[in-house]
Amino acid sequence: MTEMPKFEMPKVEVPEMVREFAEKGVKQAKEGYDKMKAAAEETTDLLENTYTAASKGATEFNMKALDALRANVNASFDFTAAIFGTKTLAEAAEISTAHFRAQFETLTAQTKELSALAQKIATETSEPIKTGVSKNFKFSA
After folding, report:
1. DSSP string across 123-134
2. Which of 5, 15, 57, 134 is the most exposed place for a label (fewest CB within 10 A)?
3. Is-contact 124 53, C-beta < 8 A?
4. Quick count: other Cβ atoms within 10 Å of Cβ 46?
5. How far apart are CA 135 and CA 130, in angstroms?
6. Which residues contact 58 (CB under 8 A, 6 or more apart)?
7. CA–CA separation, 139 and 119 (whole Å)
8. Is the pTM of the predicted complex or chain greater than 0.90?
9. Which residues does 86 contact at the CB level (< 8 Å), separation at least 6?
10. Nearest Cα to 120, choosing from 54, 47, 46, 48?
11. What are the helix and strand counts (H, E) for the chain?
């Protein structure tokens, strides 16, 4: 068997300036990574909080909308029963007018309530994003 010749690497002295430059580059890269990691973690928390607020808000909105629907359906059944119980056309017209007036007022109130709730949900959902984005821009600057 033949032996492999041994090659020795020449000993090269790295100049102090090059070594300092490399160390500084590694330090800056680590600091940049740490900032990016912190921003990514904050963004993840922000998205989780936003999702939670949106889910809670959607549930609350759906419950209010179902309550409104239930009230409107019950009012329609009550109206139908009242109409069938009338004996004259004048009485039916009076019941109809009163019902439609009451329904208009009810629907107006329900619309205002649902609109206000939707606005509140939108604000609660977007506020964490707004705060987080503004914080990250300040952090980056």
Report:
1. HHHHHHHHHHHH
2. 5
3. yes
4. 17
5. 8
6. 121
7. 29
8. no
9. 92, 95
10. 54
11. 2, 0
Length of the chain: 141
pLDDT in tens, 5-45: 676 766 767 677 777 888 888 888 888 888 888 878 887 88
* Amino acid identity, position 73: V
The continuous run of DSSP H or E covering 137 comes out as helix 89-140
In DSSP notation, 72-104 reads HHHHHHHHHHHHHT--SHHHHHHHHHHHHHHHH
Q: What angle do helix axes 16-84 and 89-140 make, rounded to 10 degrees? A: 170
